[in-house]
Amino acid sequence: MWTRKELKTKGKAAFKANFWRCVLVAFIIGLIGGAAGGAAGGATSHVTVNGNPPIVQDDTTVTQEFLDGAVTMNVNGDPADVDQFMTEFNNLINDIRSEEGGEEVLKTIAIMLAGIFAVVFAVSFVLSILVINPLRVGCNRFFAENSAAPAELGELGYGFKSGYGRVVGTMLRTDIYLILWSMLFIIPGIIKAYSYRMVPYILAEEPELSGKEAITRSREMMNGHKWRTFVLDLSWFLWIFFGVLTLGIGLIFYVNPYMEATNAELYHALKRGEA
User: Fold this and answer.
1) Each residue of 185-214: pLDDT tens digit?
2) Of all residues in the chain, what percent are helix, strand and coil, respectively (each to 5)?
3) What b/e string do you get for 94-122 counting C-beta neighbours within 10 Å, with b at 16 or more?
4) What is the spatial distance between Cα 217 and Cα 202, in angstroms, rounded to a whole number?
């Protein structure tokens, strides 16, 4: 039976044996995780133009949607900075509207902004499918291989050169499943995220598997282990807290690679069939 202490002990040893490479790969995982999260988050946002520019609610106010999505001006922690910006911005909007054809100008601006957001989201989504997901598989392979002996950075390209099409398709299928489950409610989405957690590791060793086979195997491996894995994740809370206190330095150079190495040890324990 695997225990948190055992996994962390093995993970720490593997991480320290290949320190700088583990730090770099964990840093890459952090970067691509943020990029993927941003692309997913963009899927839930929308911009509409129904004959009136969505950025103007009336003659003197800016809609909350615009402020929430596009404006963060409290640089010095002084609310007066935001108030001043809003005042100037409203004055600019009113000046434009007072000009001949001003309404059309605002509509054009709104359409251009919507187009820019759509293009940015589309590019992010495509990059997530074609680049970030295969790179994540390569990163997971690095830590899985690093468990036995110091791994080389060349492992990062594994998802691009070994069954690239299947890797892309399977990871996309997994993402779609997670989105659909999350749409039902948050809790089912979280449970399924744990069920599918081993998919990138499985693809890192057997990229020839179909999407259905990889997902099914991950579900089988995580069966009876989801709660214990959740507790394992919670056990990092203080580590992450202290990492944040070091302005992220501790996260980059210790906590994140330590966590990734431990996750790889979890994969190996489940693969061995440890209860």
Assistant:
1) 788 899 999 999 999 999 999 999 999 999
2) 75, 0, 25
3) eebeeeeeeeeebbeebeebeeebeeebe
4) 8
Provide the whole-model pTM.
Answer: 0.73
Residues 163 and 150: their CA atoms lie apart, in Å, by: 24
Distances from the Cα of 59 to the Cαs of 14, 63, 95, 106, 230, in angstroms? 62, 11, 10, 13, 51
**What's the pLDDT tens digit per position in 210-260?**
999 999 999 999 999 999 999 999 999 999 999 999 999 999 999 999 999
Q: Tokens representing 269?
A: 């324990």
| Secondary structure tally for the chain: helices H, strands E | 15, 0
Measured distance CA(175)–CA(179) in Å, rounded: 6
Is the CB of residue 103 less than 8 Å from the CB of residue 109? no
45, 124 Cβ separation under 8 angstroms: no
Q: Which amino acid is at 11?
A: G
The pair of structure tokens assigned to 221 is: 């491996």
Cα first-last separation, the chain = 5
